[in-house]
Design goal:
globular, single chain, 9-stranded mixed beta sheet, 6-stranded mixed beta sheet, 15 strands
């Protein structure tokens, strides 16, 4: 009888794994520890708002270069959910599998084209249109400018984008404001982060991504861990742990940006002392590598 692994991980990428400044993994131990945990049988799912192209280049490629393929060939398990559940793919010994897409949650291409044009004409000095997204419509802060410069322009963009959604009658929510479509529905929302703004289906969120990941691991037929940890830098990342808790698992959530406000939950919430972002993520992974004797 195959024993269940001692731990399972659901990981956001921006913040705990990739630096929000460079948008890449800059702490080498994050890569090596993820490979060690995978080799030890810990199922790992990345649950992110990022596109599959970003994850392949910035996360999977360095992991494969560090020996992830051998770890997966030896029985490790890894899965990636992108755009908060709109796309997903497996990762095996030979690398990433085919990307699966839920086309039912995508925004109309005509709207995406309008936002692309808007950014090029009015906001190209502060942000860029993310051409790699398949369902969301996203813009992101240029790495060359400071957050203090980007933030007021982001607020301006958000207002214009909301107006575009309303004008097209798509049905949208931004903050406390809602503008239903002709049927009275609100199928889309504007979701700002510290470095981007996503326009997305209201059905997409980290709990949906967690459900998809757990379903994938269960379908593989191997035992699932009883103990899970989720890690993220935004309040929406708690939804990964919410799903795990409701499903009956022993779960705790690691908040790597607690300054935004630690949420009260019926499960433990962990902070890594004064460490934040990827430094906190690295400390968390190192703790489990040591705890499991890897």
């Amino acid at each position: 009888m195959t024993l269940a692994p001692p731990l399972g991980l659901l990981l956001d990428i921006d913040g705990p794994i990739a630096s929000p400044v460079t948008r890449s993994i800059v702490i080498p131990e994050i890569v090596t520890d993820l490979v060690k945990l995978t080799a030890a049988g810990v199922p790992i799912a990345f649950i992110t708002g990022r596109s599959d192209a970003f994850v392949l280049e910035q996360v999977i490629a360095p992991l494969m270069a560090a020996g992830l393929g051998d770890a997966l060939a030896g029985g490790g398990r890894m899965f990636v959910v992108c755009e908060k559940g709109a796309t997903w793919f497996t990762v095996g010994a030979e690398g990433a599998g085919n990307v699966q897409i839920d086309a039912t949650v995508a925004l109309p291409e005509e709207f995406a084209a309008g936002i692309r044009k808007l950014v090029a004409e009015k906001f190209s000095d502060s942000m860029f249109f993310d051409e790699t997204k398949r369902a969301m419509v996203s813009v992101e802060q240029l790495p060359s400018i400071e957050a203090s410069v980007y933030q007021p322009l982001q607020l301006e963009y958000n207002e214009v984008a909301f107006a575009e959604l309303v004008e097209r009658g798509l049905g949208a929510r931004y903050g406390d404001r809602e503008a239903p479509n002709a049927a009275g529905d609100v199928p889309f929302r504007i979701d700002p982060t510290i470095i981007s703004t996503d326009i997305e289906s209201v059905t997409l969120d980290k709990d949906r991504g967690a459900e998809r990941a757990l379903s994938h691991f269960a379908e593989e037929g191997e035992p699932l861990p009883a103990v899970w940890r989720s890690v993220g830098d935004s309040r929406s990342d708690y939804r990964m742990a919410d799903y795990l808790h409701q499903a009956g698992y022993d779960v705790a959530h690691v908040d790597v940006r607690p300054s935004d406000g630690v949420l009260q939950r019926p499960y433990p919430v962990i902070v890594e002392g004064e460490l934040i972002h990827d430094e906190a993520g690295a400390a968390f992974l190192q703790y489990w590598v040591q705890k499991l004797g890897l």
